[in-house]
């Protein structure tokens, strides 16, 4: 029974899954926490990865592995393979001005055409521009730029600073995958022309002020080796890893209801959206993963539950006791502004209030329908770009609500499959590891 390992190095924690390569059955697992914050020393991720592997019983009987992780974070390395400064994570917004500067210089249409993305503060390209403008001494030291999962893969393969890693600081051994590369803002998700690596070096230079080593982008079944000659896959960004772990294919749209919401579909064709509503990511299988993000998701239900003084189970019971449409009561749930549509200063509103409609049941129903309507707007944005949508796969904490599961097909307009709770990013990475183990 060959074992493979999949890792999810997320914002909050590191999860490790060891699975049977043939069946996908989980054999062992481990976990370790990450520190809070939007700017984190990557050494904390490395310690957590080692701890989680130990918690899972170690690597000795593992034959292949891959790492999935949070997208977009900037890990800047000097020529000796040392981290120059704390990594800016996807949720660090200090580079919002840098995003606006890049759009002003190149134009949203041109950036979308070249990379599939219109820059926002999340993306790596904006963090590099911020580094250039705000910390020029650190920017001048940058020899290589990696993403969180790229860097962890490099370290676990045995590379790093001379005094920390047996294989030394070989920057050219940095590798990544299509999905994470597509979230940088300086890589084009279409098939690169012969003799090129897909990176848009002009955009990298415009951001950082100079060229640098970037991770080699591995194809879906390409692999490298670690110091023990195990096969190592290219890994995945978190959403692409989840899609792989869920077994999502063309026609599927994953609707993730967590603190924020994400709507992403597996597509055979690349998308370009100059409005920036849909990010034109790639997936890790050779396809594409157009994605829409919303700010308001499960916490909408938390907020209305607090107003009504009920737990989630009772909120569901109330919502399901009301009629569809909540007798005209409608909640626009922009409690924290909104990203889709782009209304950062918006607030929530409750309309359609009459003596008849303003009941506890209708308020609960309006909360569920309002939250799902925000996610449905993401589906419409995907449809507008010609992405075929045939069924929705519902995941995340919010998907455990009975009312959400019952009402989602009505609001989303698609058949809904509710996935069992699981660590799908780690399972997707394990599935990739099994694939490279089976490759010739």
Describe the structure.
By secondary structure, the chain is of the alpha/beta class. It contains 14 helices and 21 strands. It has helices at residues 42-55, 96-106, 108-115, 124-134, 136-141, 148-156, 178-181, 201-208, 238-246, 298-308, 312-321, 360-384, 402-412, 424-438; strands spanning 3-9, 13-20, 26-33, 39-40, 62-69, 75-77, 87-88, 144-146, 175-177, 216-218, 224-225, 231-232, 236-237, 252-257, 261-265, 279-282, 288-294, 330-332, 349-351, 391-395, 416-418. Strands 1, 2, 3, 5, 11, 12 and 13 form a 7-stranded mixed sheet that branches. Strands 16-17-15-14-20-21 form a 6-stranded mixed sheet, sandwiched between helices. A two-stranded antiparallel ribbon has the order 4-7. A hairpin with a 5-residue loop joins strand 16 and strand 17. Helix 1 (42-55) crosses helix 6, helix 2 (96-106) packs across helix 4 (124-134) and helix 10 (298-308) runs antiparallel to helix 12 (360-384). The longest helix has 25 residues, at 360-384. The protein is globular. The relative contact order is 0.14. The mean pLDDT is 95. Belongs to the FGGY kinase family. Residues 254-434 form the Carbohydrate kinase FGGY C-terminal domain. Catalyzes the phosphorylation of D-xylulose to D-xylulose 5-phosphate.
SSE inventory with pairings:
Layout (H helix, E strand, L loop, with lengths): L2 E7 L3 E8 L5 E8 L5 E2 L1 H14 L6 E8 L5 E3 L9 E2 L7 H11 L1 H8 L8 H11 L1 H6 L2 E3 L1 H9 L18 E3 H4 L19 H8 L7 E3 L5 E2 L5 E2 L3 E2 H9 L5 E6 L3 E5 L13 E4 L5 E7 L3 H11 L3 H10 L8 E3 L16 E3 L8 H25 L6 E5 L6 H11 L3 E3 L5 H15 L2
Parallel strand pairs: 1-5, 5-12, 5-13, 9-10, 14-20, 20-21
Antiparallel strand pairs: 1-2, 2-3, 4-7, 6-8, 11-12, 14-15, 15-17, 16-17, 18-19
């Amino acid at each position: 029974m060959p074992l493979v390992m999949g890792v999810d190095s997320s914002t909050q924690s590191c999860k490790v899954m060891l699975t049977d390569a043939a069946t996908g059955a989980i054999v062992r697992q481990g976990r370790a926490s990450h520190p809070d914050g939007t700017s984190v020393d990557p050494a904390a991720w490395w310690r957590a990865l080692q701890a989680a592997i130990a918690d899972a019983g170690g690597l000795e009987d593992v034959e292949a592995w891959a790492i999935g992780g949070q997208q977009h974070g900037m890990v800047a390395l000097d020529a000796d393979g040392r981290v120059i400064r704390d990594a800016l994570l996807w949720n660090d917004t200090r580079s919002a001005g840098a995003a606006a500067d890049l759009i002003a210089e190149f134009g949203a249409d041109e950036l979308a055409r070249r990379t599939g993305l219109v820059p926002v503060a999340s993306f790596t390209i904006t963090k590099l521009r911020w580094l250039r403008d705000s910390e020029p001494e650190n920017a001048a030291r940058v020899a290589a730029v990696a993403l969180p999962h790229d860097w962890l893969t490099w370290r676990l393969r045995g590379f790093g600073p001379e005094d920390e890693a047996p294989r030394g600081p070989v920057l050219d051994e940095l590798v990544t995958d299509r999905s994470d590369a597509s979230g940088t803002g300086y890589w084009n998700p279409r098939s690169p022309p012969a003799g090129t690596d897909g990176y848009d070096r002009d955009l990298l230079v415009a951001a950082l002020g100079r060229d640098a080593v970037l991770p080699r982008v591995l194809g879906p079944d390409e692999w490298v080796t670690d110091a023990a000659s195990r096969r190592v896959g290219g890994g995945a960004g978190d959403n692409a890893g989840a899609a792989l772990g869920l077994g999502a294919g063309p026609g599927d749209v994953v609707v993730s209801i967590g603190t924020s919401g994400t709507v992403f579909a597996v597509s055979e064709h690349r998308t370009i959206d100059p409005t920036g509503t849909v990010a034109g990511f790639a997936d890790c299988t050779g396809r594409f993963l157009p994605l829409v993000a919303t700010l308001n998701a499960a916490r909408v239900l938390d907020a209305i539950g607090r107003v009504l003084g009920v737990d989630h189970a009772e909120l569901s019971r109330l919502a399901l006791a009301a009629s569809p449409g909540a007798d005209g009561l409608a909640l626009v749930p922009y409690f924290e502004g909104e990203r889709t549509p782009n209304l950062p200063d918006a607030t929530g509103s409750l309309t359609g209030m009459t003596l008849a409609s303003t009941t506890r049941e209708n308020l609960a129903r309006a909360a569920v329908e309002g939250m799902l309507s925000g996610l449905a707007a993401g589906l419409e944005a995907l449809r507008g770009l010609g992405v075929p949508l045939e069924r929705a796969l519902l995941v995340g904490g919010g998907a455990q609500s009975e009312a959400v599961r019952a009402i989602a097909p009505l609001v989303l307009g698609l058949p809904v499959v509710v996935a069992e709770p699981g660590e799908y990013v780690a399972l997707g990475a394990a599935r990739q590891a099994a694939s490279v183990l089976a490759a010739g």
